[in-house]
Amino acid sequence: MQKKFDLIVIGTGSAGTAAAMKCKKAGWEVAIIDSRPFGGTCALRGCDPKKILVGAASIIDGADRMKGKGIIEAPAIDWDELMEFKRTFTEPVPENRLKGFQKAGIVTFHGEASFISEDKIQVGADELSSEKILIANGAKPVSLPINGAEHLTMSDEFLELDKLPARLVFVGGGYISFEFAHIAARAGSEVHIIHRGERPLESFESDLVDLLLERSKEIGIHIHLNTEVKSIEKIGPSFKVIGENGTESLELDCDLVLHGAGRVPNIDNIQLEKANVERGSEGITVNEYLQSVSNPRVYAAGDAAATEGLPLTPIASMESHVVASNLLKGNQKTPSYKVMPTVVFTIPKLAAVGMSEDQAKEKDYNYKVLQKDISSWYTYKRTNEKHAMVKIIIDEDSDQILGAHLIGQEADELINHFALAIQFNLTTYDLKQMIFAYPTAASDIASML
């Protein structure tokens, strides 16, 4: 069956939904396609379910830190009950998203999308055509050149485990590995992280990462740096992971091996060449309006697009709004990547916004660095938190914040205050004049500066 639309969107996550809804509201005929349950990564198999598990692990950690300081017996995680609770959030999403699209009048298609020409897409037996197409189908785990890579379990599968295995090995030292490792360790599993590089979480300040590594080891996470996984062998119900660190070898027996070595745009199977859509390793090549440089009918947003934007849900949503504006009004709006706060939801949390010290140096700013161990401050001492630090990079000429980096249980909320300051060009003087409720973590900001 052949059908014509004003806009076809591939992907029902944050990068696709906003544009689909806005264009439909403007009177366009819109179709949306997804090969997986409607809702996208964040709501179904990413940010949202992950933070539910992190919340439970944080309760365990907090009680453990307060043993002997008013807390007698620490709680324990019942994995079955926790997953049941998590599913109360994720299971309604696909049907609710589908109903939302249908109520708006958007035509939905469930299946694999592939281009058959510059303006046509095949979905099962349906052939869809449109003058405008938005590719917003996110990312997938990167393929790893490891013998036995087929035995790797992906992050979305971890979030659906009915039983948590006793022994886990994570391949790769990115945020997925560390977040899930901290959850699993608090739930009682033996956990190993194998990272081929000298330091994990490379986009974060090394001093703060060192603190996170210290805390990770304290709770029993084994971290193997400069180690490359060579093979994964299945032995009955278990696995043997073999790694190599220079001349030394590493052998680990475990019950599950998880992929935490990064993600790439999920655009390999949609036949971009038939649509004359150029792409690179970072995604679809787009101009400043998020429009394909080789096929002006096509736009891309979120993880599928090669932009300056970090692979974060708010960035994907922002880009989707930009695409909608450009579709409806003609190319006139460009995305802003000035402020992109990001958080690693380990325990403690690691957060950053703006420039690193190295970036400030590369851009030749006249800057100063304020770095403080804040673990002895009231905010952290009252919960016996021994790993808390702040590092702020300030432009000496303008007195404005170039970057802020934090580790601690309050880092995820505090980073938003610094993001606001960068967004609106507030000076450190401005921030020091702000009266925050006390005693809250935000009330420490003046002392940080």
Structural features, described:
The protein is of the alpha/beta class. Helix content is 31%, strand content 28%. It is built from 14 helices and 24 strands. The chain has helices at 14-25, 40-45, 47-65, 79-90, 93-104, 155-158, 175-186, 206-218, 313-329, 357-362, 378-381, 411-423, 428-433, 445-448, and strands at 2-10, 30-34, 107-110, 113-117, 120-123, 126-135, 139-141, 167-171, 190-194, 221-224, 228-235, 238-245, 248-254, 256-259, 263-265, 279-280, 283-285, 298-300, 305-306, 342-344, 349-354, 367-373, 389-395, 401-408. The longest helix is centred in the N-terminal third of the chain and has 19 residues, at 47-65. The radius of gyration is 23 Å and the shape is globular. The model has no long low-confidence stretch (mean pLDDT 96).
**Topology, number of strands:** 24
Structural class: alpha/beta
Low-confidence stretches: none
Mean pLDDT: 96
What best-fitting shape do the alpha-carbon axes yield? globular
Distance N to C terminus: 63 Å
The Rg value, from CA coordinates, equals: 23 Å
Assembly of the depicted chains: single chain
Please work out how many helical segments DSSP would assign: 14
- Strand coverage percent: 25-35%
Biggest beta sheet summary: 7 strands, mixed
Percent helix, as a range, is 25-40%
Structural features:
449 residues, alpha/beta
List the helices and strands and how they pair.
Elements: E1 2-10, H1 14-25, E2 30-34, H2 40-45, H3 47-65, H4 79-90, H5 93-104, E3 107-110, E4 113-117, E5 120-123, E6 126-135, E7 139-141, H6 155-158, E8 167-171, H7 175-186, E9 190-194, H8 206-218, E10 221-224, E11 228-235, E12 238-245, E13 248-254, E14 256-259, E15 263-265, E16 279-280, E17 283-285, E18 298-300, E19 305-306, H9 313-329, E20 342-344, E21 349-354, H10 357-362, E22 367-373, H11 378-381, E23 389-395, E24 401-408, H12 411-423, H13 428-433, H14 445-448
Parallel strand pairs: 1-2, 1-6, 2-3, 6-18, 8-9, 8-14, 9-10, 17-19
Antiparallel strand pairs: 4-5, 5-6, 7-15, 11-12, 12-13, 16-17, 20-21, 21-24, 22-23, 23-24
Helix pairs in contact: 1-9, 3-4, 3-7
